[in-house]
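Re: [help] complex structure
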Amino acid sequence: AIAGRAAALFTSGALAGLRVVITAGPTREALDPVRYLSNHSSGKMGFALAEAAVDAGAVTQLISGPVTLDTPAHVSRRNVVSARDMLAASEELAPHCDIFIACAAVADYRPLQAAATKIKKIHADSMELALVRNPDIVATIAALHPRPFTVGFAAETGDPVDYARDKLQRKNLDLIVANDVSRSDIGFNSDSNAVTLVWPAGSRVLDMASKNTIARGIITAIADLYTHRGQEGAVPQSPPP
Amino acid sequence: AIAGRAAALFTSGALAGLRVVITAGPTREALDPVRYLSNHSSGKMGFALAEAAVDAGAVTQLISGPVTLDTPAHVSRRNVVSARDMLAASEELAPHCDIFIACAAVADYRPLQAAATKIKKIHADSMELALVRNPDIVATIAALHPRPFTVGFAAETGDPVDYARDKLQRKNLDLIVANDVSRSDIGFNSDSNAVTLVWPAGSRVLDMASKNTIARGIITAIADLYTHRGQEGAVPQSPPP
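Output below.
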């Protein structure tokens, strides 16, 4: 397997010679040195994508929030904590890549103030926490000139495809990977996932499978769309939208 | 080591024949199926305490928030997510134990409302999150009649001992383990820790060491204090308060 992967890395594969940057895991937004706001995310999907990208021949970089996963072989990894850290790393690495995959579950709000020392317990029964909007990392990268082929994720409850198509257009993305996080059998800390791929000219369902299998399906679709970009009706095997 | 531990478990040890319940890790307080509020805590200190309690001969139960640690040998484990889950498990198990050690980093506030479906991103630059106070688990257990020997933790920034003594009296605890979480070399995800033990009649510093060594020091102090409970000036080797 190592020899096979090394061969793919240097000689062949659907992404041979391309540079891929992938964000993964959650971000944590500090209230103080003890407390934080975060999102459920094990990082497994992003790490599986990194492994699949390496197998497809790409030079692959991970920008990872706090997770407890080992770095896949042949992947270089940058660790970050907050959304602003992740944006800074993305802005540094994305201009030098061909494909940017924003798989991280970025906290969309952070506390207005992060205290330097622990906030002592207030003996009030309730309190209001002031939050401010975090930067939108995938939209920021998609707005670069020139921009990489940009892939976003949409973790939604209920039917996520309509929301994904709206997000695709609003953020000027090339592909959205949508999944329904209200299903307890997929997503988050699970080893399985089921997703719908939504791009400007079509969509395709990847049925429930291991995150490794789903990752290979996503990377294959990205390679097809990247190769045929600018052509009407890319990814010939797709059903009409 | 296994033979030694099994021997201690069944025949001897400072806590032989006693039942110990230990809470460990963080709690997570859901805003919706995706977002949550939490505390930094790897669970390592609580799990090290469970291992040390087993080594001292105690029948040991862990109530653990979301962590990525393996359960120590001979420890029974109950997994929980929120502070209210942890309280329910503690109220169920504590009345049947001799010693209750509240090592978990419990979130002191939770969102007033936890939405059943993901809150769609609001395109506001800021928002207010309404929080309500969580139950105080260690104070609830310390108020039981009869009550177990009850140990709390105080993770504070700056000099924590004065705050710990106030907390000891206010919550009617038998022992507080205080540590300074503003030091980057100890606490949280570190494998080392340094703590100050504070009980009604004295205090003692445990210098920086591995969490396993600190855990054995805490368990030894608990065994001394438990054995001499009701006697003035328990733990003879302690300096005056």
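Chain A is about 25% helix and 30% strand.
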